[in-house]
Amino acid sequence: MQDLESKYNPSAIEKKWYRFWKEKGLFKPSDAEKSYTIVIPPPNITGAIHMGHALNMTLQDVLVRYKRLKGFSTLWLPGEDHAGIATQNAVEKSLAKENKNRHELGREKFVDITWEWANHFRKRIKQQIEVMGCSCDWSRERFTLDEGLESAVRKAFVLLYKKGLIYKGKYIVNWCSRCGTVLSDEEVEHEDVPSAFWYIKYPFADDKEKYVVIATTRPETMLGDTAIAVNPSDERYKNLIGKEVILPLVNKKIKIIGDIHADPEMGTGALKVTPAHDPNDFLIGLRHDLDVVEIMDGDGKINENGGVYTGLDRFEARKKIVEDLKDKGYLIKIEEMTHSVGKCYRCGTLIEPSLSDQWFVKVKPLASEAIKAVENGEVKFHPDRWTKVYLRWMNEIRDWCISRQLWWGHRIPVWYCQECGEVICEEHDPDFCPKCGSKNLKQDEDVLDTWFSSQLWPFSTLGWPEKTDDLEKFYPTSTLVTGFDIIFFWVARMIMAGYEFMGERPFDDVYITQLVRDKDGRKMSKSLGNGIDPIEVVEEYGADPMRFTLVRLTHGNDINLDVKFIEANKKFANKIWNATRFVLMNLQDYKKIDIDEKDLELEDRWIISRLGDTVSEVENSLDNFEFNLAATKIYSFFWNEFCDWYIESIKGRLRNQNKTKLVAQNVLVKILDGSLKILHPFMPFVTEELWQKLPVQGESIMTQKWPELEDFPGDKEAEKDFDRLMEIIKGIRNVRAEMSIPPSKSIEIYYIGTKLDENYLNILKLLGNVLEISKKDEKIRGSATAYADEIQMFYIFLGEMDLEAEVGRLEEKKTKFLKEIKMFEKKLSNGKFIERAPEEVVNENKEKLQKNRDDLFRIEKIIQDLKS
Question: Which of these, 124, 338, 682, 800, is most buried using a 10 Å CB contact count?
C-alpha cells in the first residue's frame, strides 16, 4: 500500500494533479457516442474572477465531471469575452495615467494596445479558472474577437441585413456622455434618486395672461419642446387641443396636441413633448409629425440650438434655466420627490436619451421561435420561476440597438461608396463598389455591441459558419449555467440566434445561479470592503473546500457566504483524508477477493446498501440540478455512516487474522472507491490524490465509471437491523452522558428478549465501550433503560450509585430543559421573529427546541427507572 502524508495539505496536491490532467489530455472529449456539452459563459477580460464566477465555474465543473464519469463524451469549452465598452474604458484609463489618449494614438495603434492588454488579462483569467480545478478543454479555448468568431459575426450580420432584419435609422437611444457611446436598454441601470417636479407656466399665444401648467423633472430639455400633449379624454384640457402656447425662454409658438400617452394622473396631466430627448416623446412626435430639435451634443452639453445656454453642461444649464424661469415669473413651484434615473452600467454616468443614427436588429420576428421553445419545454429554466421572467421580457421586447461608437470590437461590415453613395454589406472586405466600380470605399466607423458576438457563442465556438465535426457532434449543447442578470443580455439572444442560424435550440437546460452575498446578506463590493477573493480562499483553504461550500449553499435565492463555512468543509476534506489514511494503514496484508454474499456481516451489507442508496440519490439530485442536496447526501453518508459507524464497527475485525478481516478489507476498499468517485465532481483534487493510493486499477479517477447500482445492491433488512443497532448504541451513550459516566469507563449492560448473535454483541461492546453484556429475564433494580422495542430491552447497570441523589440531580436538569423549551416555544410562536429573522436562524431555533424536547424525554425515562 502507498504511504499517505499525515495531514491534508491542498497546496501540495492541487497544482500537481491539474498539470497531470492537462498533460494526459483528460479534459478532451472521449470517443463515446453520447455527448454532453457546456460552453462557458465567457468572463469579461476587464476583471478578476470573483465569487460569483467561482460558484458558476464550480457548478459547471460538477456537471461536466459527473457526466464524464457517467460515460459521456464531455466537452466544456472555455473562452473569454472582449467586453467592448468595459475594456475600452479600462485601457483609456490606463493611457490617461501616461497622459495619453486614443485620439492621439489613432484607431490602429489604440486597437493594437488593447489587444496586448486583452491577451494579458485572458492569460490571467485562464490561470484563475485552472486554480479552481475546472476541467475545461483548453485546446478549444475561444475569444469573442478571434478570427473564427470574426467570420461568424460577419456572416450573421450579413444574413440578417439581407433578410431585412438589420436596418439603420434615427431613433432615441441611451447615450452615455462619459463613454461616448450608445447603450442598449439592458445596459442601463435604474436607481431612485432625490429629484423634483418643476411646475412651469406655458402662456397661450393669443392671451398671455392665461397659461397651461406642466410639471417636469428635466427643465433643461424644454429648449427642445415642440408641443404640449394632453389626453383627449381629459375634461380639463380637451377643448384646448389645437391651440398654441409660447415656449418660455425660447419665445417660440408650439401646439397643444391630443395623445393617449399623456396621463391625466401624472403631474398636471399636461405633458411637454421633446421628441429628440425622450423615447416616449419621440413616438408622440412620429404620430403627430412634430419637429425634432436636438439641444445637446455627445458630451452632454447644450448645443447651438440652446441659444444663450449654448456650451453649458446639461446640469449647469438646468440650474440657470430654473433661475431664469423664476426671474421671469414662469416657475410656479418646485415639488421634491424621488425619481428613477438611468445610469451607465459601466461608469455610472446619468444616461441622456438622444436622437441618433444607429444600427438596429428587428427582434420581434426572431423572438417568436425563442418564446415557443421555452413555452413548449424545448429549453427549460432551472429553477422554473425564471421561465416567467424570460417570457415576460420576450413578449415586451423592442428592437435592439447594436451599434457602438467605440474602436474595440467587431467593426460593422458595411462600406459606403464615396463616389455614388452605395451601401455595401458583405462578409469580406469589398475591393470596389458593385454599382459604379469605384475603389473609394469607407467602412462604417462603429463596432457591434459585445452581445452581438456573444449571442453566437454556442455554435460559433464549434466552428460555425463552417460545417465542422465539433458542430455536428456537440450542438445543440446540453446545459448553460449563468447568472440571472444576463438572462436578457445573453440567454434570450442566444436562443433567438440558435433558431435563426442553426434552426434549433442552443441548449437544453438553463440553470440560473444565485447571487453570492457576504455573511450579513449584503452585496459584495469594493466600497464596502466585504468582497471575498476566491483565489485567496483557494490559497488559504484549498479549492476543494471552497467548491464544496459553494455547492452546499445553492438553495434559496441568494448565498450568504461566511468564511467559517469554508473552514468547516476543509474539516470535511480532512475527514476524507484521515479516513483514507486509516483504510490504507489497515491494508498491509490485503488481497482482493470475490466476496461471497454469505460471508458479509450485517455492517457490510448495511454500508453496501447505504452507498447504493446514496449513489441513486446523488444521481437524481444532479440530474435535477439540486446541487446542494447531492452534496449534503454525500457529506452525510461519508462522515456519519461510513466514518462514524462502519469504520468504527469493523475495527475489531481488522485486528483479527481470519476471513472476516479479509472481507472487511475488501468492503472498505469497495466503499471508499465508490465514495471517492461520487465525491470527485465536487472535490476533484483530494479525491484524485486519495484514489491513486487505493489498490485499484486505472490512470485517473477521471477516467473511471460512475458507481453502478448493481454493484451496491439494496438490502432493506440489513438497513433496518443496523439502524436499530445504532439506536441502541446512541441510547447507551445518552444514558452515559446523563449519568455522568465517562466515555472511557467500561460499563456492564444486560438485555431482555431475543438472543443476540456474537457479531452484534461485539459491535455493541466496541462502540458502546461495554465490558460485559448478559441476557436476563427481568429488569434489575439500579439500572437505567438505554433502548426498548418489541424485540429487546437494553439496560445499563448503575452499580453502587446514590439513587436518591441522582434523581435529585436529574430533576434539576429536567427543570432546566422545561425552561429552555418554554423559551424556544415562545420565540417560535412570535410571528415577527419568524418573518424577520434569517431562515437559518429560525431553523437553528427549531433544532434547539427539538433537542431540548428529546433530552427531556430521556431524562424523564431515567428518573422513572431510578424511582422504580
Answer: 682
- Nearest alpha carbon to residue 277 among 387, 206, 361, 353: 353
The helix (run of H) or strand (run of E) holding residue 317 is helix 314-327
DSSP structural state of residue 704: S
Checking if the pLDDT of 1 tops 60, the result is: no
- CA dist., res. 470 & res. 462, Å (int): 6
Residue 167 φ/ψ, nearest 5 degrees: -145, 160
Backbone angles phi, psi at 190, to 5 degrees: -100, 140
Please write down the HEC assignment for all residues of 6-24: CCCCHHHHHHHHHHHHHHC
Q: pTM score, two decimals?
A: 0.81
Report the half-sphere exposure of 863 (CA within 13 A, side-chain side).
15
Q: Read off the C-alpha cell for 313.
A: 453642461
Is the predicted pLDDT of residue 620 greater than 90, yes or no? yes
Ramachandran class of 133: left when φ > 0, alpha when ψ lies in -120 to 50, beta otherwise: left
Confidence of residue 806 (pLDDT cuts 50, 70, 90): low
Confidence of residue 777 (pLDDT cuts 50, 70, 90): confident
DSSP tag of 401:
E
* Beta-strand relationship, 244-247 and 441-443: unpaired
Residue 336: pLDDT above 60?
yes
Closest CA to 634 of 588, 668, 681, 585: 681
323 CB-near residues (< 8 Å, 6+ apart): none
Which contacts (CB < 8 Å, 24+ apart) does range 494-498 have?
Answer: 494/454, 494/455, 494/456, 494/457, 494/458, 495/370, 495/373, 495/374, 495/379, 496/363, 496/366, 496/367, 496/369, 496/370, 496/455, 497/156, 497/366, 497/455, 497/456, 498/458, 498/459
Helix (H, G, I), strand (E, B) or coil at 732: helix
SS3 state of residue 860: helix
Strand partners, 518: 561
Predicted pLDDT of residue 380: 97
Per the model's pLDDT, the better-predicted residue between 505 and 843 turns out to be 505
Q: Return the pLDDT at 215.
A: 92
Q: How far apart are CA 764 and CA 747, in angstroms?
A: 11
Q: What is the DSSP string of 276-311?
A: TS-HHHHHHHHHHT------B-TTSBB-GGGGGGTT
For residue 851, which phi and psi values (nearest 5 degrees)? -60, -45
Burial grade of 395 (CB within 10 A; 0-12, 13-18, 19 or more): exposed
Render 87-131 in DSSP notation, one character per residue.
Answer: HHHHHHHHHHTTT--HHHH-HHHHHHHHHHHHHHHHHHHHHHHHH
Tell me the C-alpha distance between 631 and 682, whole Å: 8
CA distance 316 to 186: 28
DSSP summary character for residue 81:
B
- Strand-pairing partners, residue 510, are 381, 480
pLDDT tens per residue, range 851-860: 888 878 877 7
Chain centroid to CA 186: how far?
Answer: 19
Among 562, 565, 555, which Cα is nearest to 532's?
562
Report the phi/psi class of residue 166: left, alpha or beta, with left for phi > 0 and alpha for psi in -120 to 50.
beta
d(CA 524, CA 533): 10
- Mind listing the pLDDT tens digit for each residue in 551-598? 999 987 788 888 889 999 999 999 999 999 999 999 988 999 998 999
810: left (phi over 0), alpha (psi -120 to 50) or beta: alpha
Residue 288 to residue 260: CA distance in whole angstroms: 12
Of 835 and 487, the structure prediction assigns the larger pLDDT to: 487
